[in-house]
What does this fold into?
Amino acid sequence: MPKKINHEERKEKILQTALKVFGREGYRDSNLSLIALECGISRPTIYQYFKNKEQIYYYAVKLVTGRMFTKYADYVWSTTDGIVERILKICNDIIDIAAQHREELTSLMDVMLQLKKEGTDFSDIILRRTVKLHILFKRLLRLGVSTGEIVECDVNRITQHLVILLESFCFQLAFLDAFDIEGSKELVSNYLELLHPKKTQNFII
It folds into this structure.
């Protein structure tokens, strides 16, 4: 009886192998034949899942961000945690996930930089993949303001600050060996402390 193939597992194996190949060979010098060889499958088989290496890269970004945002949405609307605590937990989890998958993150960032040199702008791609996070933060901040848990503030600006911080941490994690993970979490925590009405006093956000 033929062995049943788990196609999602195979796609993820292809993805993980591709990221290693991209990091080792460079994105431009990598190809599907090399990825298939290291996966232990044929090139025609890999074509059943991905048409080219660009599709593998976009799948990687989509897979990671999609899973994360689904998890966060499930958490924030099912917990009794305070609003600021919810935002902080999301930020800390993103930092932890980035740290746990540092090698893959470095490969993704390396591909992005290589393609940037070739004229590919990732601004729109990054924005599309993080739009759910923007929306989630804005909804939480507006809810916090309406309930009095958070001071009146520019919700759009606070959201932008948080996402910029997280993006910066991810880039630093990818390329700086001495990146301070706990220090980055503390920075986010200190920033969010300013949103507490009792601790803000006369400070205007």
Residues 143 and 198 are 17 Å apart (CA to CA). The domain at 57-200 is CATH 1.10.357.10 (Tetracycline Repressor; domain 2). Residues 200-204 have pLDDT under 50 and may be disordered. The chain has one domain: 57-200.
